[in-house]
UniProtKB/TrEMBL annotation:
Name listed for the protein in its UniProt record: Hydantoinase B/oxoprolinase family protein
InterPro entries given in the database record: Hydantoinase_B, Oxoprolinase-like
Domain Hydantoinase B/oxoprolinase: 23-554
Pfam families, sorted: Hydantoinase_B
Superkingdom of origin organism: Bacteria
Length: 636
């Protein structure tokens, strides 16, 4: 039984004509100014913060919202202003106020786990709140059972760190020292936390001043008319260019998280029934996403609170997938995702008690397994609707790191978000080592070696990790670090059994894998969910991240491209034959590598027909599905 999640903040407009009378030139100026302010805020945070996760890995986002709480900028996702406006009347806010929260269950769906700390600053013009500047990011440690505040076997949110509902952290320009003291006292990295919060508050206050200047220059009514025009233009663009690519009808697909840190590995289902309504539907032309059939909430920390405020956060989180339906890659890159997509998507949630509707105090620190999988579920169900004109499955986020005491005996925590390969597309191969968190990156070797007691011995592409296909999946990372002092390894990762799926004949990519002391006397695999795996000084940790799924039958790939991939060390000579049916000739070391055209044709003609399934989930699926090669929903 599905239901609509209620909201206190229905979608609306600031002006009577929804911005139709706004000067088009001024709309462009205002939109460019918003993007500039947002980038200036993020630049300030990056330059003045202290923790590696914020300063170097760039795992943070800024966003600009109007007084109706609508997101105006579309470069990236952001948290929500809704919980602040819910708890603090807008008319009682004052200049210099800074609001703070990280409470997952009090965030209206905008915060997924406790390490994501969010600051919100109101923008004033003429003594009234006219907009908001917000930033949130993943911080090193906010307390809880383990360093990093992401215990892989947590069964309650109380084990995950300090929960803070929306509070006024700065009151009219005066910091609340008591609240800051409480937060830093609960962190294992208090100096970094204090510096990061100061950077974020100061950057958002600066951004609020910049936005205030925009209102002073053009007047509140004029700027708000431009805001409406920006939102309305997005709505109409997506209706015209994106919804028009999906035929009227319904389709269903599902994918899975493989483990929750508590129970044995199993299929934790996330299911979407996609319905494209006709233009004469009484409630309008839109996409209906029904999550009925999603598994019960997990015992471990993979749950996500999605069913708040009509699912408005999930709408903006999932909408970038729809850009793949644009007429060209160039056009796809031009399409922003702001609040304008909200009227075009209807969310229907199952009753409380599922992976997407967990009941407090269910743990959530590894909720990325669910919300990132939902990106793939939406891509897959849309692929069924448009005959595969969507990418295969992409990289999935994972946190890896080490902690202990450094060579001087001081405690340290190094945590990194390594990317992986994106899926092959109907027109091109996937990209290598992308990061689904926009603008995030791996930590620089020079920085980590100078600060932490290990040496980075290699960082490269993981050969053969991309799924084979007419268009190959992108490759993941392979990273080797050698410990200089005993420590502990941590991992919060998925896709170690189930791989990134291939589509329309394409093969799945290779899964995530961590090996300690590879080739040595103590060689061992590490679970993808690990809090404190001991590592000895001198041992190497080898991390291989996921490759993207392939698109289309690998036997249809141009053999010359396979030769090129072998030369580039992206595909091994063995995989060239096994996966692509290409018979190589010559030598890789003397630039004479080529292929035998007749032998390749004969090899390919002797191969069996591809599976009837539209999706390939890789060999790990059978392990968790009682030997089944594919799910019923994988057929079209």
């Amino acid at each position: 039984m599905s239901r609509r999640a209620p909201t206190q903040f229905p979608f609306g407009h600031l002006t009577a004509d929804a911005g139709a009378s706004a000067d088009p030139v001024l709309v462009e100026i205002v939109q460019g100014s918003l993007a500039s302010v947002e980038m200036e805020v993020e630049t300030a945070i990056g330059r003045t913060s202290r923790s590696p996760m914020i300063r170097d890995a760039h795992d943070f986002r800024a966003g600009i919202h109007d007084r109706l709480l609508r997101k105006l900028t579309g470069r990236s996702y952001s948290a929500l202003v809704h919980p602040v406006a819910r708890d603090f009347p807008i008319e009682e806010m004052r200049e210099g106020d800074v609001f703070f929260h990280n409470d997952v269950y009090r965030s209206e769906g905008g915060i997924g786990h406790l390490p994501d700390l969010c600051v919100t600053v109101p923008v004033f013009s003429g003594g009234k709140v006219v907009a908001f500047v917000q930033a949130f990011g993943h911080h090193d440690d906010i307390g809880g059972a383990v360093p990093g505040s992401m215990p892989s076997n947590a069964t309650s949110v109380f084990e995950e760190g300090l929960m803070v509902p929306p509070i006024r952290l700065w009151d009219a320009g005066v910091p609340n020292r008591a609240a800051l003291s409480i937060m830093t006292r609960n962190s294992r990295m208090p100096e970094s936390l204090a510096a990061d919060l100061d950077a974020e508050c100061s950057a958002c206050l600066m951004g609020a001043r910049r936005l205030g200047e925009l209102f002073d220059r053009y007047g509140t009514d004029t700027v708000e008319s431009c805001f409406d025009a920006i939102i309305s233009r997005t709505t109409e663009t997506y209706r015209r260019e994106i919804l028009s690519q999906i035929p009227v009808g319904s389709w269903v697909w599902e994918d899975y998280a493989e483990h929750d840190g508590v129970d044995e590995p199993m299929l934790h289902t996330q299911r979407i029934t996609l319905t494209r309504t006709p233009s004469d539907d009484p409630d309008g032309e839109r996409l209906v996403l029904d999550f009925d059939g999603t598994s019960p909430q997990a015992k471990g920390p993979i749950n996500h609170c999605g069913d708040y405020s009509d699912g408005v956060f999930l709408k903006k989180w999932l909408a970038p997938i729809l850009r793949n339906l644009a007429d060209s890659p160039e056009r796809m890159a031009e399409l922003d995702v702001n609040e304008g997509i909200v009227p075009l998507i209807e969310m229907r949630f199952p009753e409380p008690g599922t992976l997407l509707t967990p009941v407090f105090p269910a743990p959530t620190n590894a909720r990325t397994f669910v919300i990132l999988r939902l990106l793939g579920v939406l891509a897959g169900v849309v692929a069924k609707a448009v005959d595969g004109r969507m990418p295969a499955d992409q990289e999935t986020i994972r946190y890896t790191g080490v902690y202990g005491e450094d060579l001087e005996g001081r405690p340290y925590l190094m945590r990194e978000v390594l990317g992986g390969g994106s899926g092959g597309r109907y027109y091109a191969d996937g990209e290598d080592t992308i990061h689904v968190v926009p603008d995030s990156r791996n930590l620089p070797t020079e920085f980590t070696e100078a600060r932490f007691p290990f040496r980075v011995e290699s960082l490269s592409l993981a050969m053969d990790s991309g799924g084979a296909g007419q268009f190959r999946g992108g490759l993941g990372y392979e990273k080797h670090i050698r410990m200089l002092k005993d420590g502990h390894f941590m991992s919060i990762a998925d896709r170690s059994i189930l791989a990134c799926w291939g589509v329309k004949g394409g093969h799945a990519g290779k899964p995530f894998e961590v090996t300690i002391d590879p080739g040595g006397p103590n060689e061992r695999e590490v679970d993808a969910l690990a809090d404190a795996e001991p590592i000895k000084a001198g041992e190497v940790v080898r991390i291989r991240t996921t490759g993207g799924g392939g698109w289309g039958n690998p036997l249809d790939r141009d053999p010359a491209l396979v030769v090129r991939d072998v030369v580039w060390r992206k595909v091994s000579p063995e995989a060239a034959l096994a996966d692509y049916g290409v018979v190589l000739t010559g030598d890789l070391d003397d630039d004479s590598l080529s292929y035998d055209e007749a032998a390749t044709r004969a090899e390919r003609q002797g191969r069996p027909e591809p599976s009837e399934a539209f999706f390939d989930r890789g060999p790990g699926y059978a392990r968790l599905a009682d030997g089944a090669a594919y799910a019923e929903v994988d057929l079209v």
